[in-house]
Predict the structure.
Amino acid sequence: MTAVAGMDGSASGVGDVAARLKVNVLQSNAFGAAILLDGRFPTGDEENLLGSGKFSGRGLGSFRRSSARWRRTSTSATCSATRTSPTAP
């Protein structure tokens, strides 16, 4: 086994590209719901540590409920699911 105490080097270029889309499904004074999709595309060079080398995506659902009864308190919840493509052998 060999240990490395330090590493020197540099890299420049474009890293992974991220894209996001948010859609408000329902919006009112008492309730709100939105869907968010997030994707990271492997456009960066993995060998130069500019990217992950794999696609990663997630979807989120966000819900909000407001109540004038309790001095305009608001309750919110978020649910998410994440998917990452497998690493090539």
